Amino acid sequence: MPHTPQHDAIDLSVRGVSKHYTGFTAVDQLSLDVAKGSFFSILGPSGCGKTTLLRMIAGFIAPDDGDIVIGGQSMRDVAPNRRPVNMVFQHLALFPMMSVGDNVGYGLARRGLGKADIQRKSEAMLERVGLPGTAGKRIDQLSGGQKQRVAIARSLVLEPTLLLLDEPLGALDLKLREHMKLELKQLQHEIGTTFVYITHDQSEALVMSDQVAVMNKGRFEQVGTPQQLYYQPASAFVAGFVGNSNRLEVSLSGAGEGVAASGLPLRLAAQHGDASGQQALFIRPETIALSRREADVAEYDNRLSCRVETLFFDGANSTVQVRDARYGTPLQVALPHTGQHADLQPGETVYLGIRAEHAKAYRE
Amino acid sequence: MNVLAPRRLGLFLLLAPAVLWLALLILLPHVEVGLLSFRERVGPGEFAPSLKQYLTFFDEPLYWHTFVRTALMSLVVTVLALLLAFPVAWSIAKVARGRVRALMMAAILLPFWASELVRMLGWLILLRGSGVVPQLLFQLGLTAEPVELLYHDATILVGLIYSSLLFMLVPLINALETLDDSLIEAAYDLGGNRLDILRRIVVPHAAPGIAAGCIMVFMLTLGNYLTPVILGGKNSMWFTEQIYTQFITRFNWEQGSAFAFLLLGLSSLLVWLGLKLTGQRFADSMRRT
C-alpha cells in the first residue's frame, strides 16, 4: 500500500462516521484526523455525541456508516480488546479487587508477559506517573489524584497508539483539577502518545490541547487550535460556548452596521457572506475598554455611556455588570488585572469603548 | 445525666422483638435439645447423664452413612444451584432492562406463592409412573413402557435444587448489580477476554454474594425434610428423616436430640470450611444477603 509521509503522521482518522438511535442521530457524518503525538480534545455540551464518538473509537459501539482508521489500520470488526487503543474511563474504573500493581499489570498479563517482566514494567510506569513504591497498595488507600494517575498508568503501560480519555478530571475537586490539567499536559508531552480527550469543560480543552474540535448535535462546529477557537470562532455556537461573551441579538442594516434589539446602534466587524437580517452578536468582556473619563474612549468605534449595576469580584477574573444609559442594554465588562477601577460603585457612570472588530455577528 | 441513655433505651426497645424471638424460640430450645442429647433413660422416668446417644451414631453404620450421604448430596446441590443460578442472575442483573427485568424477577418469585408442599406434590404428579412425564415419554416412543421417575437420587437432587434456587439467585443478583459495568469494559479494553474477565473481575466482585448464596442453599438443603421424603420416598436416606423418626416414631427424644446436634455441628463446620477455603469473611457474606 503506498503511503505518503503525511498519512504516516496521522494516528487516528475518522471517516464519515455516523451513529443513529431511534429518534435521533448521536453522531452525524463526522470526519477527523488526529496527528501523531498530539493532544486532541473534543469539546461539547453533554448530549452532543462526544461520548458516543469516543466509544466508537474504543470499539464499544459499532458505527452505522463510515470507518475508523487507527495507526493506518481499519478498525471495522476489530473488538476493543484487540485495538491498539486504551481508554481512561470517566470514573476511572480501577479494579478494587486488585492491588495498584496488579491494576497496572492487568493488561500486560493478558498479553502473556512473564511475572518478572510485568512487575518491572508496572513499577517503571508507576514511577513515571509519580507514584513509585505504591504497587502493593490497595486502590482505596489512594487519593483522587493518585487514582487518576494509576488509571493513566494502567493504559499507558500497554504503549497504545492512542489514549482515549473520557472526562477523567470531572470527579476531582477544583484545585486538584487545575493541578491535574497541567500534569496531564506535561505527561503527554513527555511520553509522546497521542491523546484524544473529551470534555465539556472548555478550560480543560483550551489549556491542554494542541487541537480542539467543538462538537454540537453530532457534528463538529469547528476544529482548530485553542487560539483559533477563542479569537476566530467560526459559528455562533463556538463563540458562545468557548470563553465568556456578551450575546446580543442584532438586526444588521448593512456591511459593518447593526442595531441591537434594545435599539442600540453598533458598528461591527465586516461580515462574511450574507450581511443582513437577524444575527447573534458576541462581544468578549475583556475586549471592552472601560473608563471614568469619556475622553479615554474617544477613538473607539462604539462609545457607550453606562451605569454600573453590580461588581463581581473574582480576583483576576473580576467583572462589572453595566447597563447602557440610553437603551438599557446590559453588558458584562472585565476589570483590568491591575486593580484599576476595583473601587467602582453601583450607580456610577462609566464610559465603554468597543472596537468594531471585537463585535462579531453570526447567523444561527 | 447521660444524654445517650434515651437513645440506648430506644435501640433496646426496637431490638426487643428480635432478641425475644432469638432467645425464646431458638436459643432456649437448643439448650433443651442439647441437655436432652447428653442423657440416657435408665428406668421408667429415670435419666442419667451419658454419651450413649452419640456413641450409637458412630456404632450404627446406617446413621453414619445417611449423615455423610446427606452432607455430600447437599454439597452437590449447592454447586449445581450456583452453576445454574449464575447465568440467570447475570441476565437479570446485567442484561435485562425495565419490564423484561421485572417479569424475570416475577417469574423467579412466582412459584414461591404456592406452599412448598403443593409444589412438591406437583413434582409428584409430573414424575410418578402413571404421571405426565413418563406417559409423554412412552407416547413419544422414547421408552418401551412408562418409567418410574420418582425415588431416584437424581430426582431428589432436582427437587432440592428447585426448592433452593431462589436463595442462590437473590444474593447473586444483588452482588452482580453492584458491579460497575465500566469495570468490565475497562478489563475488555485492556485486552481481557470473557473467561478472563469472569475470573478476575466478576467472580472476585461477586464472591461475598456467592458465599452468601452457597451458605443459604447448603443450610436449607441439609435441613430440608419435605423434598427428600416426597420425591425420594421412605428410603430417601436423608438425615432429617432419621431425626424425625427418632422424635416421632421411636419416641426416643434423647437420640433425636443427639442427631439434631450432630447436623448443626456438620453444617457449621462445612460453612466455616467453605469460607476459609475461599478466603471470605462471614460478616461480608451476611451483608450481601
Automatic annotation (TrEMBL), chain A:
Pfam family, one: TOBE_2
InterPro entries given in the database record: AAA+_ATPase (IPR003593), ABC_SmlMolc_Importer (IPR050093), ABC_transporter-like_ATP-bd (IPR003439), ABC_transporter-like_CS (IPR017871), Mo/tungstate-bd_C_term_dom (IPR008995), P-loop_NTPase (IPR027417), Transp-assoc_OB_typ2 (IPR013611)
UniProt domain ABC transporter: residue ranges: 12-242
GO molecular function: ATP binding
Keywords: ATP-binding, Cell membrane, Membrane, Nucleotide-binding, Transport
SUPFAM superfamilies the record matches: MOP-like, P-loop containing nucleoside triphosphate hydrolases
PROSITE patterns the UniProt entry points to: ABC_TRANSPORTER_1, ABC_TRANSPORTER_2
Protein's name according to its UniProt entry: ABC transporter ATP-binding protein
Lineage: Bacteria, Pseudomonadati, Pseudomonadota, Betaproteobacteria, Neisseriales
UniProtKB/TrEMBL annotation, chain B:
InterPro entries: MetI-like, MetI-like_sf
Protein location: Cell membrane
Domain ABC transmembrane type-1 as annotated: residue spans: 67-274
Superkingdom to which the source organism belongs: Bacteria
Annotated membrane topology: Multi-pass membrane protein
Transmembrane helix recorded as keyword: yes
This protein's name: ABC transporter permease
Keywords: Cell membrane, Membrane, Transmembrane, Transmembrane helix, Transport
UniProt family annotation: Belongs to the binding-protein-dependent transport system permease family. CysTW subfamily.
Membrane-spanning residues: 63-90, 102-126, 156-176, 197-222, 258-278
Organism: Vogesella oryzagri
